[in-house]
Amino acid sequence: MVAVAGPTGSGKSELALVLAEAFAGEIVNCDSLQVFRHFDIGTAKLPLAERRGVPHHLIDVADPDQLFTAGEYARVARRAIGEIAARGRLPLVAGGTGFYLRALVDGLFQGPERDQALRERLAAREVRRAGSLHRLLTRLDPETASRIHPHDVPKVTRALEVTLVARRPASELFRQGRDRLTGYGTLKLGLLPDREALYRRLDARAERMFAGGLPEEVESILKLGFPATAKPFESHGYRQALQLLRGELNRGEAIFHAQRNTRQYAKRQITWFRKEPDLVWLRGFGDDGEIQREAVERVGEFLGAGK
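Above: the chain's sequence. Below: its structure in token form.
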């Protein structure tokens, strides 16, 4: 299996296509937004006509108001790569959601299932006293609390849920091990363009998205009956398009905030992937011919070594 990772706008989709054409591959999406139907423009989802006949998997597999966790992603992605490999083709995992890639390759620890009633009680507590959940987690499981930012309420909530339901610290359960992917050698390629060049591309892309109908796409999704509180609407670009439609921002302000937030997101992605074990960096964009030749060479060597 080959993974193509990197920050948003770095050219992962194009490089994955090149590798799929060179090595008889099929692409498995690893973007947490592209799994959702109807969210196309703001996710830079590759249109069917531009996929050059290469099969793509895990795109448009969930409704916008559907819960789709990293664990669910790992489960369906593993099934997809197994089917691709069974056809004698190369699974190519491509996308910028580092947590999904880690869940796929390294697995997740087997914690208890979601307890919605408990989550609602925890949420109410956090509303009454902001920061109280992280303080509670610090008392119950200081090791896990030290790894989670106090403002990251979803992760704090999950850690507390695991600790309270299992009656054991989440850190203790985590050390018991995870369900790692077995049976595959994995080459992880990471695109790392020049930071300023990447930011210029992201700024230009945000302008094109708004000019290309992002606010209208948001309006059409709402008309389908999906709520503005659906998780994908929290993402960069979509959040600003919603604010534009509500009159909270004008068009220039919406584009400005979308650009700024996307740049910040790209920076966080790079930080995440720098910590990814065994990732091989390609220092450029995925649509650059030299980078593509280097990637093809590395994949060729990787596949040859596995024979």
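The first helix runs from residue 12 to 23.
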